[in-house]
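user: can you give me the structure for this one chain? tokens are fine.
assistant: on it. calling the predictor now.
[tool input]
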Amino acid sequence: MSATIRQLAERLIAEGAEDLPARDRRALEHIAKRLSASQNWSVDYEENLTFGQRVADKVAYWGGSWPFIIGFGSVMALWIGANIVMATRAFDPYPFILLNLVLSTLAAIQAPIIMMSQNRQATRDRLEALHDYEVNLKAELEIMALHDRLDRARIEQMADSLERIEAQLANGAVPPRQAG
């Protein structure tokens, strides 16, 4: 598929949009329509997330933030400090088996949730890259069309100038020679 798109793009750049076969022009029109219809693809993507996906994204966002790390470090320091100070009446005496259980459970739950969020972010990145490619292709098409219009305008201008010169020559008016 990528090779076909590359070939089409190379032909389009080399030959211009007007010289393309009808099939290729239809493909380009399809891309242009798709681009105009998908201007808010990011919003559409976010709206289609399930509740679980939204929760996973929030857990990944919160679990990878400095407030979480500082807060969790503080809770652990308080936990350990309180159990050392309480000594014989500690609810989790040294070697802090309950704390280890809590940390292991948190890691076991948080890790796959974060991985789900990262996988979805990778999918979103691929969609964004595809969208960027399509936008760039559309911009290239617009630039080519603009170049074609400029070329046509220059050709018309040159043809008009040539007609005026021919008319002057036909009327016997010879333009003065440039000293050179």
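assistant: here you go. The two ends are 59 Å apart (CA to CA). Residues 56 and 113 are 5 Å apart (CA to CA).
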